[in-house]
Amino acid sequence: MTGDAGGREGGRLGGGVLPGRPYDGGVVLLAPRMLALHLAAVAAMVACVLLAGWQWDRYRQETAPRAVPAERADAAPAPLATVSRPGVRMSPATAGRPVTASGTFDAAHQLLVPRRESGVQGFWVLTPLRVGDGVAVPVVRGWVPRADDPRTRVPAGAVTVTGPLLPPEPIPPPGRAHTAPPPGQVRSVSTAQLITVLPYPRLHEGYVLQERISPPVAGPERATAPPLTRPGGTGWQNLAYVVLWLIFAGFAGFMWLSIVRDRLRTARSERVAWQHR
Amino acid sequence: MTAALTRFRVMAYVVGVMLLLLVFVAMPLKYLGGDETAVALIGPAHGFLYAVYLVVTFDLGMRARWPVGRLLLILLAGTIPFLSFVAERRVARDAAAARAAAARPVPEEAS
User: Fold this and answer.
1) Record: contact A3-B65, CB cut-off 8 A
2) Is the full-model pTM beyond 0.80?
3) Helices (H), chain A
4) How far apart, in Å, are the Cα atoms of A71 and each of A61, A67, A75, A211, A231?
5) Which positions in chain B touch A10 (Cβ < 8 Å)?
6) How confident is the model at residue A21 (pLDDT cuts 50, 70, 90)?
7) Using a CB-CB distance cutoff of 8 angstroms, which residues of chain A are in contact with residue B11?
8) A240: which chain B residues are within 8 Å (Cβ-Cβ)?
9) What's the average model confidence in pLDDT over A133-149?
10) Is A274 on the interface with B (CB under 8 A)?
11) A8 touches chain B (CB under 8 A)
12) To the nearest whole number, what is the mean pLDDT of chain B?
């Protein structure tokens, strides 16, 4: 009894080889059983690579920024204090939600943000709205084409502003102009930056894009809200699967090579035995 | 060989348990309960452990000179719930039988 208790189908060199004929490697590799192995190995490797590709596509989808659902913009406006706390990061579910904020504008700290609307260069008018004791929320009241536009005049007295609460914009990287913007201007509506130029210890994150104001007063043209996207997920699970499927493809190839090498070695030793019969 | 056999048996159990957790705990949690975290953790873990199972099974198969068909079936057994336990039992039993056969004294030739 030889050591292979289970028997070795294909240990014999496939079918169709006449007894007494010298065995050689080419015959081994092309024997019908081996062809089936080659086919299965190639199919397995191709399938694994395709599956890795599928998971890679899913990874790209998962990590791409996602559009915020449009229904959020249609929600009934809620008081600012119910959806945002000063100094606390805006939750992803809140971004873009209509809110109402009541208080008085701080005309002394109004800022202009250079911004294009409909292809025309102009400024967003950014005015802090005092909503509580030392608490404020930045309000983009609208857009004007020139800095000296009379519509930048700040409404006096108690007002209630209604509009979406938008997430802060990133601080733009220093571009061609490495100089600071002129006093009274900021490059973007960034909470991290506004904290340093506004005197409010407690600032709501983000800003309200004013759509309505009560009592109604003539003001700048309405600014256009930027399209909202949420950052994509990490997608690490899909990345792990990509690696896994590639490992499986490699393993299928390794198994294939091992079996072929083993059969060739067997064929060689059988040929030697036959030659020395 | 014994070490290879032990490695195989350990991995067959580990993979079998992970697959059961994945199919009977994590997936119901995700598809019926809406909770994705279990699948996100157990899925890739099972995947990598299965890769290890592939390696140790192949290693044992080559040492034990299994036919290719048997090797493939045992490799695939790690992908179907409960089957890796069945494979482990079969392999362990065959190995025990082979050891017993090798240890049996050679019968006297009838003269």
Assistant:
1) yes
2) no
3) 25-30, 32-63, 80-83, 191-197, 236-275
4) 22, 11, 7, 17, 18
5) 67-68
6) low
7) none
8) 44, 47-48
9) 89
10) no
11) yes
12) 87
Q: Do A251 and B54 touch (CB under 8 A)?
A: yes
Residue B63: what residue type? R
Chain B: give the shortest CA distance to residue A59, in Å.
13
What residue type is assigned to position A177 of the chain?
A: A
Distance CA A141, CA A211 (A): 8
The pair of three-digit structure tokens given for residue A136, joined into one six-digit string = 């404020």
Residues A24/B84, Cβ–Cβ less than 8 Å:
no
In the predicted model, what is the mean pLDDT of residues A258-274?
Answer: 83
Nearest chain B Cα distance for residue A134, angstroms? 41
User: For A5, which of B40, B48, B98 is closest by C-beta distance?
Assistant: B98
Is pLDDT at A132 greater than 80 in this prediction?
Answer: yes
Nearest one of A125, A86, A128, A124 to A105, comparing CA atoms: A128
Which value does ipTM take for this structure?
Answer: 0.77
The CA distance from A195 to A182, in Å, is 18
Tens of pLDDT, residues B21-50:
999 988 888 888 888 888 888 988 999 999
Mean pLDDT score, A3-32: 52
Average pLDDT, chain A: 82
- Distance (Å, whole) CA B44 – CA B42: 6
